[in-house]
Amino acid sequence: MKEIHYGILSTAQIVPRFVEGIKKSRLGQATAIASRSLEKAEKLATELAIPRAYGSYEELCMDDEIDVVYVATYNKGHYAAAKMALAHHKHVLVEKPFTLQTDQAEELFKLAEKNGCFLMEAQKSVFLPISSQVKEAIKTNKIGKVHWLQSITAYPNVDHISWFHSLEAGGGTLHGSGSYPIQYMQFLLDQPIKETSGSVTRQIGATDDQVNLALKFQNQTVANIFISVKLAIPSKMTIYGEKGRIEIPYFWKTKQATIYYEDGSQEKLICDFESEFVFEVEHVNECLQNHLLESPVMTRKMTIETVSIVEQLYSGWLTEDKQA
Questions:
Q1: Beta carbons of 225 and 213 less than 8 angstroms apart
Q2: What is the reported pTM?
Q3: Which pLDDT does position 323 carry in this prediction?
Q4: Considering only CA atoms, which of 251, 258, 255 is closest in space to residue 236?
Q5: Please, how many CA atoms are within 13 Å of residue 222, restricted to the half-sphere of its CB?
Q6: For residues 132 and 187, what is the distance between their CA atoms, to the nearest angstrom?
């Protein structure tokens, strides 16, 4: 089978772990990396054994050997970088948040369709083996009808992200981590979100450091999402059913989950792996082998609706600022 060559846009902290996922996949090859600083690109290329380094994103997009461009720039830069790659007829995988505005997300998917390119939001959590096991447990009624989901995500240290506190750059807790639980819950339930509301803690004109969301799904299941960079507490998702609950610690990278039954017994779900990114990469590779332009799992609809939810929440909070 033909190897699939990846080009990496950015030298961000997530890149080494994503490249490890490429290397552990069956067909993926990390072929080139680009940064606005050639020195940074060359340094990381040497560390990660990537053959080529470029001092501009466009140079990488012009590389004929590259099949897929992975966009891991700062949040606001996702739209422009993805658009550039698609304009050069490259398949594209874009880190979360996909874009900051709904019209930008719609434009990118239209451009991808026009140019015959595959486009997907990077969402490693839904491709983890444990995620499929949890979904199957729900589907086979192991905990009965699900009525409530609760997600807690805590990042007590974000100082390494230089632009995290910049609203203009797309910083903040909801931009940074909201896509994970919003999309993961939809994946587990196979249900769209019908209602969303949320409260936030932040200074006027600044990014959010805590957010608390309330969701209602089409089947009347409700959910709560709490994200904070102010607390050092365990991160986990809990799915509550009529006959028990499922707890998933650090659901976006987990190797295990536990089912707690109403009779007091427990069942462990376990799957070991070396890279949490390899499953997402394998999915992209499979989509390209099958000449798909859209993932059947991380769909265009889910991505655009998530961008819309997040954009509307931020818009409401900014309106409150003006009225304060």
A1: yes
A2: 0.95
A3: 64
A4: 251
A5: 4
A6: 9
